[in-house]
Write a sequence for this structure.
């Protein structure tokens, strides 16, 4: 089983500090994944290159719209130079800055291209349980598998019942990293509800205790379904959030 922590690459020192905290306090963690946030100075593949000496399985998120669909070579070179052969491909949100080009590319197209050019790579795609209705999201997932994705990383879940519904859609041979993230304020809850369309269960609350309970329950769920898990410790100290759980 893979237990992953998502590290936000604010700068190189932050990445290395969080790696050291995880190594000292969260012994079951065996994987790191790093999102690609274009306003930050460290790109996802650069952060993963920093992490690999400590966690050999370091998974960058790659935004399809950042790469020219007619010329995949720059992306292939970036990942090859960093020694990375496992990645998560997302379409990516358009950025407001005109300093960075964006391309008419999407996750399905980039997955298909990379799977053809690097068939030995393990390419993951995204599941968003709140983006659209269940049937449409399932069909979108099937497109990604047909394109060459081997499995999925999900957007954060907050409800074990909804996780169970999604687990029933896929054979256990399709690896899923179940996403979990703490929500520790009413402002944060409102953001998730408004921007990400999350529907929280009626027993949800914003206490650290509830979020630790759910982190543990989701880990048990993932283990019972032969899956994996990744934690996104947004706006919380990762040790306070997960020590004693992983």
């Amino acid at each position: 089983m893979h237990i992953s922590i998502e590290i936000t690459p604010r700068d190189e020192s932050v990445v290395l500090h969080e790696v050291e905290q995880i190594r000292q306090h969260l012994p079951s963690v065996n994987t790191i994944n790093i999102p690609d946030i274009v306003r930050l100075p460290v790109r996802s593949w650069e952060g993963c290159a920093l992490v690999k000496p400590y966690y050999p399985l370091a998974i960058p998120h790659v935004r399809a719209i950042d790469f020219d669909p007619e010329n995949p070579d720059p992306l292939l070179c970036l990942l090859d130079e960093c020694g990375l052969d496992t990645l998560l491909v997302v379409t990516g949100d358009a950025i407001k800055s005109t300093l960075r080009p964006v391309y008419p590319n999407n996750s399905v197209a980039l997955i298909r291209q990379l799977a053809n050019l690097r068939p030995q790579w393990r390419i993951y795609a995204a599941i968003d349980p709140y983006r659209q209705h269940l049937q449409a999201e399932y069909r979108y997932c099937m497109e990604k598998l047909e394109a060459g994705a081997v499995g999925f990383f999900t957007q954060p879940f907050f409800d074990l019942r909804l996780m169970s519904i999604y687990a029933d859609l896929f054979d256990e041979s399709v690896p899923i990293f179940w996403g979990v993230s703490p929500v520790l304020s009413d402002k944060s809850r409102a953001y998730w509800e408004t921007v990400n369309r999350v529907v929280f269960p009626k027993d949800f609350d914003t206490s650290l205790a509830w979020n630790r309970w759910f982190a543990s329950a989701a880990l048990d769920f993932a283990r019972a379904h032969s899956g994996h898990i990744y934690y996104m410790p947004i706006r919380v100290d990762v040790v306070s959030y997960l020590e004693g759980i992983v």
The CA atoms of residues 72 and 114 lie 8 Å apart.
